[in-house]
């Protein structure tokens, strides 16, 4: 296999796997050279025999039931479904093939006809809505090019998108809406140097046109947010890169997006999704703090929030909780791409979250944030390559939803118990004194503090009680 192909496939294993392998039954690849033909005919259900998934409680042994997620149950004054605001990621669930950099696709969903035709795109959209209905989720997320095939020209791509989106709007009915939409600015070769940060102004213009259209269709579908993930907005080498100029271009691009959003009356939140690298060696939106600094520098605070993805957090050397808290304390927590990485694998494995401790920490941030609305939890997560039954799509989402629901319950237990908050309160109580309050109010000048330090002598430093904090946390799980 050639090096270039390996790189291309690596990218696609993260988002949408290319169907470049000749062997095996045909799938409908999202690649550019895929043959586009096929009919839209499909008789009956896409998921026959799978009922609407219900809550049966923790003692249920039924794999096709929720054990912890009880949509209508009220927790801390809000229904569970309103805390969670779950969303299905179209690209993983309906375009993921199980292919990876070393292997051919493994998933051959029965409704796929091996083409990337418009008819196939529409059939797949119908499958999406049957899935949403059965899993009991009211939101979905998409890239423009996941849902409709690329055309020979931008005009043709836009027409394809319009056709699929018209059907999606009809299928959404009154209940279902996109949590967010986005433009795919990373797969086509034109974006090899980036979109908004490309060295070529023609590419910048093409990217702008694609985002314009993707914002329009997100608005048309009643989307609540619009996401910018700059997978190729970064660099491979600083030797041939004018970083300052590229970042200025990205800032201008974001300004233009704000202006267009206002022009079309789209009231959704604009979100930037940080990720440190992959596919680019260094992505400009490295993590929450870097992205917050970018927004401040370009005067975009107040116009954008952040979409924190847990697997991206760990790739940047942080925990998901750290990224969520960094976003939250800066007033920037807008949405969560709910997934997790693997401690032994160094790339973006996009797994469904199954760790209750991690989910509890995530939900602590969400509760402290007062919820995520108009954001939510998008399952930017895919089935493992070896999970090949249609039923596995349900099992994966049920397990992800139950894990986060269990995290919510544990977080509430922890808050209601109060001992962790008390431990933290005591830790900082010296700042509740008169001089501490002065410091916090910005009145702690160095001369006054020096006098106090001399008067008080060596300070007595209390224990941080870290192990006790861990014990309290564990007992809430
Ligand atoms: C890639 C990723 C994307 C964004 C949307 O790692 O997370 O799917 O969420 O482009
Ligand atoms: Co994501």
Walkthrough of the structure:
Belongs to the xylose isomerase family. The structure is a single chain. Helix content is 44%, strand content 10%. It is an alpha/beta fold. Strands 5-6-7-8-10-12-13-14 form an 8-stranded parallel β-barrel, surrounded by 4 helices. Strands 1-2 form a two-stranded parallel ribbon. A two-stranded antiparallel sheet has the order 3-4. A hairpin with a 2-residue loop joins strand 3 (74-75) and strand 4 (78-79). Residues 1-37 have low confidence and may be disordered. The chain binds D-xylulose (XUL) and cobalt (II) ion.
Beta strand count: 14
Shape field: globular
Major β-sheet strand ordering: 5-6-7-8-10-12-13-14
State the helical fraction.
40-55%
The largest sheet is: 8 strands, parallel, barrel
Query: Structural class from helices and strands?
Result: alpha/beta
Proportion in β-strands: 5-15%
Which small molecules are bound?
D-xylulose, cobalt (II) ion
Protein name: Xylose isomerase
Keywords: Carbohydrate metabolism, Isomerase, Metal-binding, Signal, Xylose metabolism
Signal peptide: 1-22
Enzyme class: isomerase
List the helices and strands and how they pair.
Layout: H1 3-14, E1 54-55, E2 65-66, E3 74-75, E4 78-79, H2 80-84, E5 86-89, H3 90-95, H4 118-135, E6 139-143, H5 144-147, H6 154-172, E7 177-182, H7 201-220, E8 225-228, E9 234-235, H8 243-264, E10 269-272, E11 282-283, H9 288-297, E12 304-309, H10 310-315, H11 320-329, E13 333-337, H12 356-368, E14 377-379, H13 390-417, H14 419-427, H15 434-440, H16 446-456, H17 466-476
Parallel strand pairs: 1-2, 5-6, 5-14, 6-7, 7-8, 8-10, 10-12, 12-13, 13-14
Antiparallel strand pairs: 3-4, 9-11
Bound molecules: D-xylulose and cobalt (II) ion.
EC number: 5.3.1.5
Keywords: Carbohydrate metabolism, Isomerase, Metal-binding, Signal, Xylose metabolism
Signal peptide: 1-22
């Amino acid at each position: 296999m050639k090096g270039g192909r390996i790189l291309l496939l690596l990218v696609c294993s993260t988002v949408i796997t290319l169907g470049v392998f000749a062997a095996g039954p045909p799938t409908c690849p999202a690649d550019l050279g895929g043959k586009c033909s096929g009919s839209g005919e499909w008789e009956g259900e896409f998921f026959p025999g799978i009922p609407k998934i219900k809550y049966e409680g923790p003692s249920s042994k039924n794999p096709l039931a929720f054990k912890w997620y009880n949509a209508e149950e009220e927790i801390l004054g809000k229904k569970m479904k309103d805390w969670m605001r779950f969303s299905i990621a179209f690209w993983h669930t309906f375009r993921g093939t199980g292919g990876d950099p070393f292997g051919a696709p493994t998933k051959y969903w029965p409704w796929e006809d091996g083409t990337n035709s418009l008819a196939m795109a529409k059939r797949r959209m119908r499958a999406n809505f049957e899935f949403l209905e059965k899993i009991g989720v009211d939101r979905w997320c998409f890239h423009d090019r996941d849902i409709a095939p690329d055309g020979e020209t931008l005009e043709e791509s836009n027409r394809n998108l319009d056709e699929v989106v018209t059907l999606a709007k009809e299928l959404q009915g009154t209940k279902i809406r996109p949590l967010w939409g986005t433009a795919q600015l990373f797969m086509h070769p034109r974006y090899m140097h980036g979109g908004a940060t490309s060295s070529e102004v023609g590419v910048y213009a093409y990217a702008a046109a694609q985002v314009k259209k993707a914002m329009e269709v997100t608005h048309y579908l009643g989307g609540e947010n619009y996401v910018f993930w700059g997978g190729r907005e970064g660099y491979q080498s600083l030797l041939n890169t004018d970083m300052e100029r590229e970042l200025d271009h990205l800032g201008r691009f974001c300004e233009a997006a704000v202006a267009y959003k206002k022009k079309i009356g789209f009231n959704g939140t604009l979100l930037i999704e940080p990720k440190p690298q992959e596919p680019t060696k260094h992505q400009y939106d490295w993590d929450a703090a870097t992205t917050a600094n970018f927004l401040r520098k370009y005067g975009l605070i107040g116009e954008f929030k952040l979409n924190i993805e847990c697997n991206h957090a760990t790739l940047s050397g942080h925990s998901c909780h750290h990224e969520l808290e960094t976003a939250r304390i800066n007033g920037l927590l807008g949405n969560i791409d709910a997934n997790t990485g693997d401690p032994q694998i160094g790339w973006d494995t996009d797994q469904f979250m199954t760790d209750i401790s991690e989910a509890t920490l995530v939900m602590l941030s969400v509760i402290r944030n007062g919820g995520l609305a108009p954001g939510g939890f998008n399952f930017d997560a895919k089935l493992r390559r070896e999970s090949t039954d249609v039923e596995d799509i349900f099992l994966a989402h049920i397990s992800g939803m139950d894990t986060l629901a269990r995290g919510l319950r544990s977080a509430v237990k922890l808050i209601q118990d109060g001992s962790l908050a008390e431990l933290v309160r005591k830790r900082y109580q010296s700042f509740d004194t008169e001089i501490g309050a002065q410091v916090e109010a910005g009145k702690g000048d160095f001369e006054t503090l020096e006098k106090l330090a001399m008067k008080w002598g060596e300070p007595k430093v209390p224990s941080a009680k870290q192990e006790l904090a861990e014990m309290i946390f564990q007992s809430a799980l």
